[in-house]
């Protein structure tokens, strides 16, 4: 599959997820976990089909993955999780977007540093970065939701 097509898919998924979360939405496990798992899977698929990765690429990739999950988890701590109609809901706020801006700057700085110190850009698929970040966010939101003792919302039909 063409890299531009995969990037477009990632952007569409990202926009849909963010718009729904700004408006507030019932929090169900499928909507929370499937998009980041799909994006991470696409990123890993791209990475698996990237030839000539060097040990330095793997090291920077691991560091970027850990940073992405950690920053996503931090962002998830700023997502409002609440009970409505007997189920969990979530909503992004202005504070969430402030954290998003900060994490984007940190990830951009990390990527620039990695590239300047020898990591090849094709060893950093954007889909993988976005997916891992949302995995971290999903973990934080899930833990916060579980602490409320309210069930996830049912799947939409």
UniProtKB/TrEMBL annotation:
It comes from the Bacteria. Keywords: Membrane, Transmembrane, Transmembrane helix. The keyword Transmembrane helix applies. The chain crosses the membrane at residues 34-53, 60-83, 95-114. This is DUF1453 domain-containing protein. It comes from Actinoplanes awajinensis subsp. mycoplanecinus.
């Amino acid at each position: 599959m063409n890299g531009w097509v995969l990037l477009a898919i990632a952007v569409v998924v990202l926009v849909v997820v963010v718009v729904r979360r700004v408006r507030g939405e019932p929090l169900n496990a499928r909507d929370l976990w499937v998009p980041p798992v799909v994006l991470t899977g696409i990123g890993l698929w791209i990475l698996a089909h990237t030839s000539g990765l060097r040990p330095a690429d793997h090291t920077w990739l691991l560091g970027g993955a850990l940073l992405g999950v950690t920053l996503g988890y931090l962002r998830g701590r700023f997502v409002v999780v609440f009970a409505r109609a007997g189920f969990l809901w979530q909503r992004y706020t202005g504070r969430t977007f402030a954290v998003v801006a900060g994490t984007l700057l940190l990830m951009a700085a990390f990527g620039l540093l990695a590239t300047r110190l020898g990591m090849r850009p094709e060893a950093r698929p954007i889909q993988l970065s976005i997916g891992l970040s949302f995995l971290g966010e999903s973990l934080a939101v899930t833990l916060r939701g579980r602490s409320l003792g309210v069930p996830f919302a049912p799947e939409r039909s």
